Fold this protein.
Amino acid sequence: MSATHAASRSQAAQRVTLVATYELGRQPFGLASPAAWLQGAGFQVTMVDLSREPFEPEAFNADLVAFHLPMHTATRLAVPVIRRVRALVPAARVCCYGLYALPNERMLRDLGVEDVLGGEFEQALLDVASGREPEAGSGPLPRLDFRVPLRAGLPPLARYATLQTPTGTRVVGYTEASRGCKHLCRHCPIVPVYGGRFRAIPRDVVLADIRSQVESGARHITFGDPDFFNGIGHAVSLVESVAAQFPGLTYDVTIKVEHLREHRRHLTLLRDTGCQFVVTAVESVDDAVLAKLAKGHTRAEFEAVVEECRDLGLPLAPTFIPFTPWATTSGYLELLRTIDALHLVEQVAPIQLTLRLLIQEGSRLLDLEGPALNARLGSFDERLLVYPWAHSDPDVDRLQQEAAAVVGRGLTASRSELFDELLALTADRLGVPTPHRISGRLDRAAVPYLNEPWYC
């Protein structure tokens, strides 16, 4: 460390601005949680959510400006803002934290970012603001004494994504009951940071966070845990407490297919305590692809979970990555036909049928480089923040582009209409008749859904 850098490190901040660029339409937990730590230590904290409010230069008049980078889209959106802040407030210290910070450290430091923090960032961010050297990002994952997030100063919940139900619209809050994940799916951005570890947030902290959001108008809560059933005892105790303390409050969770099968006896509890739907990352219906991704489930197990949840009256919201190096045009048609046969058309956001596998820095997919990857892999692109790849069959890449164009043009179309277009497009590419739809065309409002369904 240079003498200049060491000297600047010893100077504590007084004013801290925390910045979010995109968090899937949710009020950003990644700002509210560290804000509680910083304000509790006496810092003047400003929170800026650029997905819901304009860039106001005076908000960045701070000693420390810290960007939360929880996902790929948020990181790409942050890059031009970081440049703007560096020019606007050259004396400010700039920090980035979150899942996508450490994997993109080289690019961020080239932008002038002094501190790059990974998972469990609250204490490290407080250290930076206090002029102390934070623990090395690649060291042991710390165990934090979690605090109730501070949400005053963020845009009101009514300005974020809402839940659409057969009986109307509900204001949505967001919290986390755990972070990290016990599993090592090859494509998951959590794995390079957490390495199979997860941390439970104390039930009382989670309940206090929910209470503050209910008092601000929330009637539904999204639990943003990578897998709500990673700590099954913690999850069960929490939803029982939520139902007892907040009658009528609904919620949604994300759970692996593997855990939905392993803990099937608890699915009725989810239904009976107000769970409106379960997001589950299916990714593919091709067992060979699922094995490449190390997903931990098979197509047959996914189909069994769909039937069991339907029998219980617990809706699923499956997510997919249809376009991988191992995808084929016939395989894409099979995916569409399977979604139709399982009566899931209205439960799958159309964007999920266009997604292309992202290979980020540190991804376990890089272990498959060569024949096992079945694609031409380029050097890391610091503008796109991925390793670009081209399918060995150019027709598959063209199909992905055409599918994305169909969905992009149809933002006001129904899910059934877009599904039919994709079905016809794929059949035409294969030179076969468009398959007859098995599932009926339901009223979209019959299935609860959040109105900002992006997952990347």
